[in-house]
Design brief:
The protein has 274 residues and is α/β, with parallel strands linked by helices. The chain is 38% helix and 23% strand. It is built from ten helices and 13 strands. Strands 1, 2, 3, 4, 5, 7, 8, 9, 10, 12 and 13 form an eleven-stranded mixed sheet that branches. The protein has a two-stranded parallel ribbon with strand order 6-11. Strand 1, helix 2 and strand 2 form a beta-alpha-beta unit.
Length: 274
């Protein structure tokens, strides 16, 4: 009986060593991504999830802004450029392909003490161009409006200004280089207003309706919430022209498991372009 027990232990050790050997034999395949800070939560969730289906894949993301990420792909320094705006014609002309993986809403946020619940699109435009400077002009308290925005080159800023026709027209009191600092400033500065990706909104700030419509999944899908934009994972050439590891990453993103990951961070998954 004692010998039998020893045999069992030896076999268990052998199987464990075989398993470790098999794991070691899996060659890591690195994928470099660069771009939008607004896509950070989604990309990190995909990074954590993809290894269950493709254990060989190792995502190496950087978050330096949409324009920087696109430039990195054009220059061959990254496999994928994450952009929180659609690609420009000039970028497409350089061989980039726009692979939309999710739809995000741009939320208009204020501090939780703000009594205003809704803005029309026209009022929002007037606030960001400096025509409206006090909350009492839109039904709120007598309080100066502090306009917060993203830095030039930000995909969120580009999308926000493009949707509202505000390119080169906004008057910002503060410009910050990430979504997190916008949330922090809006939370701490009375009268502040800002725009952020919907997936970074939390209970510490307040979301405003636009033209009476809040940024819900239903309103984003049916298009009634107007401030929405694509999350693009740009490649140089089509997905089919990429390395095997990049193709496998996109297979995962567009799979049922990938869609669940995207939904889990508050975004709307989309089907691959046909």
């Amino acid at each position: 009986m004692k010998k039998f027990g020893i045999v069992i232990v030896v076999l268990a050790v052998c199987f464990a060593m075989i398993g470790l050997s098999a794991s070691a034999d899996v060659e890591t395949q690195k994928i470099s991504l660069n771009g939008s800070t607004s896509m950070e939560k989604m990309v990190n969730a995909i990074k954590d999830g993809v290894v269950y289906d493709y254990p060989e894949l190792s995502l190496e993301p950087q978050f330096t802004g949409s324009s920087a990420g696109i430039e990195a792909v054009i220059n061959g320094k990254s496999d994928i450029g994450n952009s929180s705006r659609e690609l420009k014609e000039s970028e497409l002309e350089q061989g980039l392909v726009s692979n939309v993986v999710a739809i995000d809403a741009i939320a208009i946020v204020t501090d939780t003490d703000n009594k205003t619940d809704n803005l029309t699109k026209e009022q929002l435009i007037d606030i960001y161009t400096g025509k409206i400077r006090n909350w009492k002009e839109v039904g709120g308290d007598d309080l100066p409006i502090v306009v917060i925005g993203r830095e030039a080159g930000s995909g969120t800023r580009s999308a926000f200004e493009e949707i509202l026709g505000l390119e080169e027209k906004c008057e910002y009191a503060n410009e910050v280089n990430e979504s997190g600092p916008i949330v922090a400033k809006v939370r701490s500065i009375p009268g502040a207003i800002g725009y952020v990706s919907l997936d970074v909104v939390d209970d510490s700030i307040k979301t405003l309706a636009i033209d009476g419509v809040y940024a819900t999944d239903e309103a984003i899908i049916d298009g009634s919430y107007s401030l929405q934009r694509p999350f693009v994972m740009a490649t140089k050439g089509t997905i089919e022209e990429q390395s095997e590891q990049v193709q496998n990453l996109f297979k995962y993103i567009y799979s049922e498991d990938g869609r669940k990951i995207i939904e889990s961070v508050g975004l709307i998954p989309v089907d691959p372009a046909s």
